[in-house]
Amino acid sequence: MPLSYQDVIAADLSSLLDVAEAWQNMGERFGELKGHYTKHVPRALAEDGRWQGESFGAHQDASSVTAFEFGAAKIEALAIASLLRKAHAELTRLRKAVKDLVDDAEEKHYKVDSSGKATYVGADKHEKQALRNDPTYAAAQQEAEHAWTVKIAKAVQAVDDADEKAKRALIRAASDISPDGRGIGGFNAHAEGDLDKAGAPEATATKTNGWTSKSKTTVTGPGAGFSATGPGYGREGMLKLYADIGHVTSDGSLKRGETTLSGIADGYAGARGTLSGGITDKGLDGRGEVSASGRALAEGRVESDVASAYVRGTGFVGGEAGLTAGADVDGVKVSRDAFAGVKGGAAGGVEAGGISIGATGEAWAGAGSEADFKLGRTEDGKLRIGAKGGAALPFGGAVGLEVTIDPGKVAKTAGDAADAVGDTVGSIKNTLTGIF
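Given the sequence above, the corresponding structure tokens read:
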């Protein structure tokens, strides 16, 4: 939510320096801990020489990771301390600019209310008479009030922009997306303490050839939790238990005119179990599943105003089991799956004129089976027919096919085609008439 004029005027920024000092002390302490740990744990054991073998090697590897994380924690904490100090300096400067602007307005007999709106209050008897009787004079005065209000709003916006920049910088400094150390989700050994660099907006640029690009990366985890919701009128009840090691998603797109090229890469590791079910005005359904796995997905897509196509690759290692059943006015769905091992798959599909056809194939190394059938309508009214099945013991795979039909798009395509045929016939008729 953007900062208001009152937020800016009433803000107390001094706490930023107090927090920055705490982070600075924390970073220095992490540096001391790394030195003590390196000296008294892995180095001391190595110099002693009496502990050898695989367990010693495993301990030394784990100790090097711990030492790395102590060092990464120092870098992250000092970077955050630097960002907080620089954010305090920038926000203080911009907040002062707002207050100075208000002071200037008040010196010129304008009153600024709690929303940042300026109103002229310095009119004497003759000016008040002119404001009542001279529309031109009154319009000029209103324009002057508006000009002051706009200046103040721009100054407040500058504070809000700086606040958003600080927010982006702090989130990035505390997010570890590098595989070094103990991997994604540890302390950030590459944290940036420069506010302008770390707080820069997500990359969005228009290239010289007319393509516009966008990209975004999100990182979450590690984390664990339990939740329970419902059941209640018109909604499902759900129990959920999870322990996530980490989840990374990165996506981007290129767009020019009606053509869009897009891609996404997603990776997840963790364990979770869910149980859900309910009866709503749309029907009844139930779903139970458990999994402990690592998953990865990469997809590329090209879309235009007449057709689209996609290709997708997936990978899975771990175990999972699930059962789904449901029925509603739009159709029925039944699926079950259970698998433990490794999967690799590829999928592709095309869509044109409101009809979409997609196919998938997977190679399995493990033990499991899967059967899935869907017939009905999607939430946006499309007709969907799909089936997938597979098994492995210990090697095998699965294949699947899905067809989606958008009645509205099919009708529009048919109408466009009829119009095109009519135009062509009319053109031929006119040509022949001209000849004979």
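The chain has a mean pLDDT of 77. Try to locate this feature in the token string yourself.
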